[in-house]
Amino acid sequence: MRSAASRIAVTVRSASRLVLGTMNFGSRTSEEDSGAIMDDAHEHGINFFDTANSYGAQQGEGLTDYIDLYQMHHIDRDTPWEEIWEAFSVLRQQGKVLSFGSSNFAGWHIALAQEAARSRHFLGLVSEQSIYNLMSRWAELEVLPAARHYGLGVIPWSPLHGGVLSGVLRKQREGLTGRSGSGLWAAAFAEQREAVEAYEKLCAELGEDPAHVGLAWLLAQDGVTGPIVGPRTVEQLDGTLRALEITLDHDTLAKLDETFPPPAPNGAKPAPEAYAW
Question: Which of 55, 70, 150, 275 is catalytic?
Fold first, then answer.
């Protein structure tokens, strides 16, 4: 039954390694196809669905009346954490929300939130949803270390950098277009075209689709719970599952680091210790 598939009480610790993003539902994917994707995801063990009140996926009949994981989309610069946690504790006591997470927080914000929650003997954040992929590794400086320290699961959004890491050069040769051909993602591609070329060449040598390699790299990163994937069809979702089967060896990971270097100011040390000498 579809309703059961789309409302499963999970915590980050029991979540599947891939998160089904529903941003395309209702806009680029019909209601019927969206339901088929959710059914297919559930059948393959994906129990973590990411949605928002601005997305096309709406709560329907038969769904429970609570939120498994409520994620703040951005830091609230005007409200003290003591007030935020007081309000959230009421929601949890009322059974309306099981867990709370953050999105687009800096490492400092995570630390403030967790220490404020600790002073109230409250659960605090259980996850951080951040942009993170081979082309955007800034989260490694502060966000990932903070998340690991406080036990938060990290949920990368835009894991393929708007499609640039999904084989954009091959798609161009085949006459295909996508989000990677315009806007922010086009600028990122233009700046790192040589790196993208090297990346696609490496993926070809591995005999793997670039999109699957990009997801597999994220899955290999310490602290990552699961990247958000946004398939528009059942076929795309089924193809994405290949990433769960790929194990990148040390040499391949080293080559990826050479192609898309980590942002630490002192590469000999991992962040945040990289700031010291």
Answer: 55
**DSSP states along 93-118:** HTTSEEEEEEES--HHHHHHHHHHHH
Q: Both tokens of residue 19?
A: 């998160």
Coil vs helix vs strand at 32: helix
pTM for the structure as a whole: 0.88
DSSP 198: H
Closest by Cα among 262, 134, 130, 265 to 189: 134
- Dihedral of CA 58/64/69/73: which sign? positive
Tell me the two tokens of residue 213: 């390699």
Residue 157 is which amino acid? W
Is 199 noted as a catalytic residue in this protein?
no
Instruction: Tell me what pLDDT residue 137 has.
Output: 95
The span from the CA of 218 to the CA of 62, in Å, is 34
The dihedral over CA atoms of 193, 195, 201, 202, expressed in degrees to the nearest 10, equals: -160
Tens digit of each residue's pLDDT (9 = 90 or more) over 18-75: 999 998 888 888 989 999 999 999 999 999 999 888 776 555 444 588 899 999 999 9
Taking the C-alpha atoms of residue 141 and residue 146, their distance in angstroms, rounded to an integer, is 9
- What single-letter DSSP state applies at residue 186? H
